[in-house]
Amino acid sequence: MSTNDSAVGLIYPNCLKESSDQPGEPMDVIELLQHHVDAFVENCPKPVILEAGCGSGGYLRFPEGSRIVGIDISQEELDKNTIVSEKIVGDIQEYEHEPNSYDLVICWDVLEHIPHPDKAFAKFCGAVKPDGLIVLAFPNVCSLKAIVAKMTPHWFHVKLYRLIYGKKYGSPGYITFPTVLHKFLKNGTIREFAQHNNLNTVVAESHESGVQKRFRRKFYLGDGVFRFFDKCLRLVTFGNVVLMDSDWVYLFRKSS
Ligand SMILES: C[S@@+](CC[C@H](N)C(=O)[O-])C[C@H]1O[C@@H](n2cnc3c(N)ncnc32)[C@H](O)[C@@H]1O
To answer: What's the average model confidence in pLDDT over 92-118?
Structure first.
């Protein structure tokens, strides 16, 4: 991971996930978000953080003394998670958090797997403190990756992930999750919802996901080839479907 270690004390750095960017590539989105989080925790040295759909690990680093609460629907995933200090087995669409109780809410690669992402987002809006941050990351519903994921059966995802990451995927302890990709996750809809819920958009970046980058590297599909296909796809679909920008990340700040 290419974030700056010196900005904050680290907790369990070995359990953090890796961005698959190569050294020397432009600042990736994780680095960009980490930069904002580091600036935020300078004024909030012991933040209370909610990792919604925390799974077995996370991408962002927090100072020592942070209180990290993880909620996930899967006990198995929570059992593997060594980053969070408190664990809740629950559904992020329904779980009632104490209002205004978190400095930071993170929901990374989860909203695409649930039928009511709007309900989950509304819960985050209520749970975060005024001036607090919400980080969301999920696939771009207008990307080829998302369209393929939505239209293919779950067993195909398992096979593809095994091809990219190795045989452990799909076996007990290494679950892949069915994809719903609700249309609420469209960029415009998310931004509008945020605005109606007193959230200011600080970051809204589309980017190529680590999975897609790994896929390309595995099959020697260089940037040039992909960018060419990206241009063709945009042309043929009048810009409605894209290839390179497979995912979105957002950082919202709740108004005070
Ligand atoms: C693809 S994993 C992402 C995990 C982690 N956030 C990360 O970035 O690696 C999706 C996670 O969402 C959890 N999940 C799926 N539906 C959920 C729900 N309704 N409520 C809470 N967690 C859920 C799954 O159990 C899984 O751990």
So the answer is: 97
